[in-house]
Structure formats: structure tokens, C-alpha cells
Amino acid sequence: MKELKNAVLLLVCSFIFDAGLFAQKTVNEATLSYNISIESVNDKPALSKSLDGATLSIYIKGTESRSDMVSSLGTESNLYNSKEAKGYILKEYSGQKLMITLTKENWAQKNQYFQNMKFNIDNNEQTIAGFKCRKATASLDDGKTFVVYFMPDIVTANKEYNNAFKQLPGIPVKYELQSGKLKFTYTLTNISYDNIPVNKFDVPKSGFRVMTYDENQQLKKG
User: Could you tell me how far CA 53 lies from the centroid of its own chain?
Assistant: First the structure.
């Protein structure tokens, strides 16, 4: 009898889990808007203060994606077409404009830190910034972890727009990432499903200094 009860319970749990998956909505086109809070992890907060008010906008349309990070220092954009397997990084700082071209291999190399990230999901629901979320703890190859709160009822068909969340079963709502001495907290403020003009993914024809990803990596080493 006990074994029968356990079997029934397992069947019910499986049904609930499957129903949750089928309720998940997949979208091909969306604009995600984030506010970015930046905090210095040392005793020199001047740089973090100079970045106050920074925002991140992500545009996803079919196999194309674009992210624009805008701060008082300038703008940095990442464009990637997963069908054509090529991308671009556009940097506009202090009047200087740089375009870095990327192949599929370059895009993978740029995002390799997150390549094998795994998520441990807590199914307890909570509300953050007006969105119903679940908590996931991300584990990286180097043993580091960070927490991301995500909205599980919506996923994007395009998984290449952000390799950090390629395996996350939902839209990231709030998460923290550290770069050097700065900690960045991203908080989702809006999701739009309005049509995105195709020219949003156009690459500038002039006005930018152009180099390959490999050339840029060598320049950094130099």
C-alpha cells in the first residue's frame, strides 16, 4: 500500500511539473529593459558613482539580438545573429568609436566563462520589481556562485542573446555580477512585445574604427 501511495504521489508530481512546462510561453520577439546599480567593492567608490543611472536594453527578434549598455561614460552595444553566426561589439566612449567583429568562435570565446554554468532552482515564488520570480543559484566552473531571480512563465526562443542565461528556464529579473572591483546589480523594469524595427540590428557603415576580435585581444595584451 505504501509503495502504491508513493507511485501515485510521483505520478501527480510529474503531472504538475509537466503542466508547468506546457504553461510556459515562448516568445520570438521582446525588448527587455534593466536598471543597473553599480557598487564599488573597495574604498574608492568614485568610478561606481560616475556610472550611476546606467541602463541595459536587450532587443531580441528571431535569430538576431542586440544589447545596449548606456552610462554617463558612453555606450557599448553587442549585436549577434545566430543564423549567420557573426556579431559585433560597438563601443562609443569619449568621442571614440570602435567596432569589433566576431565570428561564431569569437562569440563563444567571449562568453566562455559562463559556458558550463549550472542552475540550482528554488521553487518558492517571490515578487521582485513587480514580477513573480523564482530563485536560481548559478554555479560556475571556477567554483564561484551567484544568485539570479527569474520569471519562469516566459522564455525566449533565441537562447544566444546572453550566454550567461542560456540554460535558465525563464527571463532573468534580478542578478548581480562582479567585474574587477565593481559589482553590477541588474533589475528588470519592463518587458515589451512590440514589433522591433529590423534596422535596430543594422551595423554602422562608417564612423567606426574596425578591428577583429583577435586583434582587439592582442591590443589588450599589449
Answer: 19
CA-based R_g, the chain, Å: 20
How far is the CA of 191 from the CAs of 33, 51, 60, 80, 100, in angstroms? 6, 23, 11, 20, 28
pLDDT at 183: 86
Query: Which pLDDT belongs to residue 41?
Result: 75
Cα separation of 103 and 1, whole Å?
60
DSSP assignment string, 24-88: PEEESEEEEEEEEEEEESSS-THHHHHTTT-EEEEEEETTEEEEEEEETTEEEEEEEETTTTEEE
Q: Does residue 115 form part of some domain?
A: yes
Domains in the chain, number: 1
In a domain, 3, yes or no: no
Give me the CATH number covering residue 189: 2.50.20.10
- Please give the Cα distance from 130 to 189 (Å, whole number): 9
Q: Which domain holds residue 54?
A: 27-221
CB contact at 8 A, 38 and 51: yes
Three-state SS for 117? Answer: coil
- CB neighbours of residue 17 within 10 Å: 10
First to last CA, the chain: 72
Query: Could you give the CA distance from residue 191 to residue 193 in angstroms, rounded to a whole number?
Result: 7
Give tens-digit pLDDT for 176-217.
888 778 888 999 999 999 999 999 999 999 999 999 999 999
